Task: inverse folding
């Protein structure tokens, strides 16, 4: 989160900055506590990024102009501003975690705490999940991703800015330099999202720094004379309008916070008169107090909410939510008054640094011990732990194995020293089968490619959207021309009934007739290039986060959710499709449901663990159950 204004600049007297902070943190908290009330409230974090870029650029540029900037002083102030309150929250969360969380979840908590203390929480959460799924809602330190981005910005940006300030002349070229950084980052964000990298685009500094840089541009722009109040008020209202529009209507496919970023910059650009009616009526004393407490509010609201969600499993009762919200406000006020303010201004630096170092060491020892003891599994029954162990265990590509391919980020698997001869084509439901074939690829010294279009189907005549159609066609052409690929395994979700064709006509396909024809056409077209084509059939899915819900129900003694559906229910939905595909594909149809279903039920788990990592993706254990079905591909 953004740090408060510095005394040198008297920025703490700018009511509009306190108001922006209050708006930002209120939006985030509203989104987390009542997501239906403000579905785009998560964009409040983006607002904080712009404020940080503005304040840091203004601070450094003014101090550098007087030859007063010192890196040591800059980082000391960041340490005193951020770490005391953050460490207090981590201590409290660590106590709650060991009392509440199952062993695998406690291990994940310990890893996230180490990442937070290492200033790489954003990288950790990128690699282990996302931000918007239901399983992500149960990570007590997920909100630390934004602090990771801020801390990395603080580490890198000052040096860049000092170089720009000292060696670039005139002022307009300094602004242009920051603008080039913003444009490069903005373009990288769009590109990465386009090729299926929305997760890294969301979490990583290179695709976020454009917001800091835009704030920096407004800090370097010449300000408007104070007496021109009509123009200043207009810019303030225009900026506020852009923010409100963005909160109510996020943009797509460009970065969703584009208007909000520009609007925040317009408000920050000029200081309104202290007797401005806009400030008097929009930014009242309670609003300013929320702005002053915004850092603590952000720190405390999320772990309080997460631990409640973890315990209640289903929905947290409204009266408990409201009580938690009041507790958040009270604790945050205490944190601001008795931790933030004293450590920033009155407690001696030596005492501050000694306290920070001591608590750092305690927290690192705590997390390391929990990892060494595997989360203290003896606290709960084995089945609850084995189910929790499956959470988020679906396959993720190692960062070094990503390759550009067609319209996708492909992923190398198997013996990556070889040219890929096999491809898993589809979406995340193709990627989840990677563990089922990696062992065979390594045994036969072969490499494979995962070619996923997340949120899309691989079919080229109808798909989830027009954009999916374009990208699927690009992937098809790339595979068609790839002479190294000899075997293609197509896998996808079978639960997307609403489709669109090339003419833009909407198609409802509840009985799979359109998809069956589309899949067969794709397979026939690929087979004409001399490749061996296989199709992975449907499986029964829980449609809720089975591993997480079931494990917590066991821990807290609740009534368990269904751990299966009837075989009759699965057959009624898919048997005609499977029978038709079996006749046409003659041994080229892989049917994982045969390993997951018995005569009576299609199971989501057994006594050893959960087959699913979330609501619809197989866990590592689930892929082990179906692995033998893929072996014949490598025996031909």
Result:
């Amino acid at each position: 989160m953004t740090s408060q204004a510095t005394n040198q600049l008297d920025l703490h007297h700018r009511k509009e900055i306190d108001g922006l902070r209050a708006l930002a943190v209120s939006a985030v908290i509203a989104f987390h506590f009542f997501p239906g009330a403000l579905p785009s409230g998560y964009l409040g974090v983006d607002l904080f990024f712009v404020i940080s870029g503005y304040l840091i650029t203004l601070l450094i540029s003014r101090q550098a102009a007087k030859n007063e900037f010192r890196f040591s002083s800059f980082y000391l102030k960041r340490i005193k501003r951020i770490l005391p309150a953050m460490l207090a929250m981590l201590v409290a969360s660590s106590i709650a975690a060991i009392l509440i969380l199952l062993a695998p979840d406690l291990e994940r908590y310990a890893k996230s705490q180490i990442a937070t203390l290492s200033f790489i929480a954003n990288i950790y959460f990128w690699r282990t999940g996302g931000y918007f799924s239901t399983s992500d809602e149960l990570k007590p330190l997920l909100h630390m991703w934004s602090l990771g981005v801020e801390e990395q910005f603080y580490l890198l940006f000052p040096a860049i800015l000092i170089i720009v300030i000292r060696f670039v002349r005139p002022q307009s070229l300094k602004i242009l330099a920051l603008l080039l950084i913003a444009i490069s980052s903005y373009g990288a964000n769009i590109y990465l999202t386009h090729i299926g990298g929305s997760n890294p685009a969301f979490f990583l500094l290179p695709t976020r720094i454009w917001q800091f840089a835009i704030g920096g541009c407004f800090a370097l722009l010449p300000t408007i004379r104070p007496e021109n109040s009509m123009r200043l008020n207009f810019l303030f209202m225009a900026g506020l309008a852009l923010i409100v529009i963005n909160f109510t209507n996020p943009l797509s496919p460009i970065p969703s916070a584009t208007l909000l970023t520009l609007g925040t910059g317009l408000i920050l650009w000029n200081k309104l008169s202290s007797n401005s009616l806009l400030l008097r009526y929009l930014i009242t004393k309670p609003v300013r107090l929320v702005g002053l407490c915004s850092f603590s509010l952000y720190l405390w609201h999320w772990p309080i909410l997460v631990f409640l969600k973890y315990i209640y499993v289903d929905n947290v009762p409204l009266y408990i939510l409201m009580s938690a919200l009041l507790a958040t406000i009270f604790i945050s006020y205490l944190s601001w008054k008795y931790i933030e303010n004293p450590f920033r201004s009155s407690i001696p630096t030596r005492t501050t640094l000694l306290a920070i170092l001591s608590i750092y060491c305690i927290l690192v020892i705590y997390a390391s011990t929990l990892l060494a003891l595997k989360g203290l599994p003896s606290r709960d029954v084995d089945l609850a732990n084995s189910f929790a162990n499956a959470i988020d265990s679906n396959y993720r590509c190692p960062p070094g194995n990503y390759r550009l391919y067609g319209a996708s980020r492909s992923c190398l698997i198997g013996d990556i020293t070889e040219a890929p001869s096999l491809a898993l084509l589809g979406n995340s439901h193709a990627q989840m089968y990677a563990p089922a074939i990696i062992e065979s690829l390594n045994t036969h010294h072969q490499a494979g490619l995962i070619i996923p279009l997340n949120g899309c189907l691989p079919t080229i005549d109808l798909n989830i959207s027009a954009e999916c159609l374009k990208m699927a066609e690009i992937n098809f052409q790339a595979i068609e021309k790839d002479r190294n690929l000899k075997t293609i395994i197509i896998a996808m979700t079978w639960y997307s009934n609403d489709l669109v064709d090339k003419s833009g006509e909407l198609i409802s396909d509840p009985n799979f007739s359109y998809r069956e024809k589309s899949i067969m056409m794709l397979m026939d077209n690929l087979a004409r290039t001399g490749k061996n084509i296989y199709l992975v059939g449907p499986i029964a899915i829980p449609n809720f986060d089975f591993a997480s819900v079931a494990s917590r129900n066991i821990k807290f003694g609740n009534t368990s959710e269904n751990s299966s559906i009837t075989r009759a229910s699965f057959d009624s939905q898919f048997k005609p499709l499977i029978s038709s595909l079996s006749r046409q594909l003659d041994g080229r149809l892989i049917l994982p449901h045969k390993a997951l279903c018995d005569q009576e039920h299609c199971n989501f788990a057994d006594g050893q663990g959960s087959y699913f990592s979330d609501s619809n993706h197989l866990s590592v254990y689930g892929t082990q159950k179906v692995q033998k079905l893929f072996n014949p591909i490598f025996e031909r």
